[in-house]
Amino acid sequence: MEQGPPQLEKVYISSVEQYLSAIKAEKVCDCYSALQYLAMKDHFKDKKIVVRLNIAEQIRDRYKVSKRAFYGANRVIDFTQQTTLDVGEQQ
After folding, report:
1. Cα–Cα distance measured from residue 6 to residue 23, given in angstroms and rounded to the nearest whole number
2. What global pTM score does this model have?
3. Cβ of 39: how many Cβ atoms within 10 Å?
4. Residue 49: helix, strand or coil by DSSP?
5. Residue 79 has pLDDT above 50, yes or no
6. Domain locations in the chain?
C-alpha cells in the first residue's frame, strides 16, 4: 500500500501578537512577506504554518498592501477560515 508524503507538523498563528512575537524571536524583518521568511527559518523547516484568514487580513492591513501582493508573497503559508483552532495541536 502506497503512502503519501509525510504529514508536516502544523504551527498555528491565531493572533497578531503571536505573529509579531514569532517574527521577532526568529529575527525576521517586519514586512508583508514575513510569514514566508518565517517558514524558511530552521525552526519551521519541517513544519507547516497555518494562519486564520481574519488574522491574515489584520496582518495585511498592518502593511497596507493589496491582497494579491500579500497572499502572493506568502503562498507557502496555509490560510484557513476556521474560527477555532485546536489549541492542543499547537505544541
Report:
1. 26
2. 0.80
3. 18
4. strand
5. yes
6. 9-83
